Amino acid sequence: MTTPSPARAPRDWWARPRLMFPVLLAIFFVAALLTPEKQGASLDQRLSAHLAGAFGARGLADVATRLGWHTVLRDSTGVPSGRVAGTIHAVLNPVTPVTAVEAHRYLEAVRGGDALLLVLGERNPLSDSLGVRHAPHGGFYVPPVADTTGCGRRRDSFVPAIFTNGSVTLYALRWPRGRPADAETLASVNMATDDADEPAEDRRTTPKQARAASDTGAAESAVLQESVAGFGLGHGRVVVVADPDILRNDVLRHCAWGADVQAVRMLEWLSAGGVAPRSTIEFDEYHQGFGEGTSVLRVAARFLRGHPVGRTLLQLALASLLLLLAVAPRAIAPRERGRVERRDPLEQVGALGQAYRQVRATRTATLRLLGGVRARVERSSGIGRLRSDDELLGRAEHIDPSRAADVALVRRALLPNATGVALPEVGAALRRIEDTFTTTPVHSA
């Protein structure tokens, strides 16, 4: 007879995999749908042909390529390449300042037959050379009816646009030095609005719209002011755009705004008017912050090599480096010079005297002391070099008979077996004998 197996304890509902796995998957799916996505590159407001976000200009480059223009994105240098004749140079609201040398190269290329599409932003030498700026106010861009014919109902209405009120607002152009005589207006903005009954908060959604509405006195009057203009320069052509918003991807993709047709019309105007159609469009991406040429190291190296202040700083840095290498600790310590310790002369005399006294070297010590007396006497007096020590002693006794006892003491100390003679007494006797030669006149015998 088999025993029945014990019954399993029931699990809690939150510990059942068949129930919890579908619940967790559903939670993850809902969280992925509701979590706002970071736009990343779409928030980049540079008008660059590299950027496909809402504020970029990738749409302009793609449209130009589709229509037959050869597009080039120049990242490596900030001046026109000059490799292809008949080129349209697109400088679209540069974020990196255009230098005076680069502006000169652009204008020389245009005078030689190229074209320039300049989108204004901050003042730079290129816009100052052309004498054009954007005005502090703006208005609503109303495209021609023919540009929006055939635009049906927008299928991408669920995607929010950068202009939430359904109209494109652009800055107007301003000519500080006067408008060129051959300038043509390619696009205009309406400085007034016909929607007088529209609430102000719906009508003034951007600073440009607010300035446009505040600068007009009558709501029903329509004052047009150019926002895009083209004029000739030498053998080439120039188109200046007051506001970069007209060429942004998010504006070009809306058919009802008509900005796509207007952008193509600008390129066609720049392409014409020459010996041959300008079939190449070169986008200046160097001044948009792309390429190796805009790195901090390259800019610093260019400053240190090409500017007088930079070269001075470079020389000071190299001199400081050499000074640092000169005073810095070395890997191998220099060899110290050997030092020979020498006694002080007075200490040496005392040590020698004590040594002579210990060994009773009276005769040797007396010879040394007498040799010193002879050296000093023969150098300082005119008696000449004497023949022997005994003659020196006899000469001293002859000059001063009172030194007979001193001479006898010294002669006894010079004997081979001198006994009972104290060295201090011998030293005193030799000092008196030396005084005899140095203080008494010496006469030849």
Annotation keywords:
alpha/beta; nine-stranded mixed β-sheet; elongated; 2 domains; 445 residues
Note down, in words, how this protein is organized:
This protein is an alpha/beta fold and 445 residues long. It folds into two domains: 42-147 and 161-303, no CATH class; 347-439, no CATH class. The protein contains 15 helices and nine strands. The protein has helices at 17-34, 58-66, 100-111, 125-130, 200-203, 207-214, 249-252, 259-271, 296-306, 308-327, 345-359, 362-380, 389-399, 404-413, 423-439, and strands at 70-74, 87-92, 115-119, 133-141, 168-174, 184-190, 224-233, 236-241, 280-284. α14 (404-413) crosses α15. It is elongated, with a radius of gyration of 54 Å. The N and C termini lie far apart (162 Å). Mean pLDDT is 78; it is low at 193-207 and 209-221.
Summarize this, please?
The protein is of the alpha/beta class and 445 residues long. It has two domains: 42-147 and 161-303, no CATH class; 347-439, no CATH class. The protein has 15 helices and nine strands.
Mean pLDDT equals: 78
Largest sheet: number of strands, sense, barrel closure: 9 strands, mixed
Class per helix and strand makeup: alpha/beta
Rg: 54 Å
Question: Which stretches of 5+ consecutive residues score pLDDT under 50?
Answer: 193-207, 209-221
Shape: elongated
- Give the distance, in angstroms, between the N- and C-terminal Cα atoms: 162 Å
| Element order: H for helix, E for strand | HHEEHEHEEEHHEEHHEHHHHHHH
Number of separate structural domains: 2
SSE diagram, text form:
Layout (H helix, E strand, L loop, with lengths): L16 H18 L23 H9 L3 E5 L12 E6 L7 H12 L3 E5 L5 H6 L2 E9 L26 E7 L9 E7 L9 H4 L3 H8 L9 E10 L2 E6 L7 H4 L6 H13 L8 E5 L11 H11 L1 H20 L17 H15 L2 H19 L8 H11 L4 H10 L9 H17 L6
Parallel strand pairs: 1-9, 2-3, 2-9, 3-8
Antiparallel strand pairs: 4-5, 4-6, 6-7, 7-8
Helix pairs in contact: 9-10, 12-15, 13-14, 13-15, 14-15
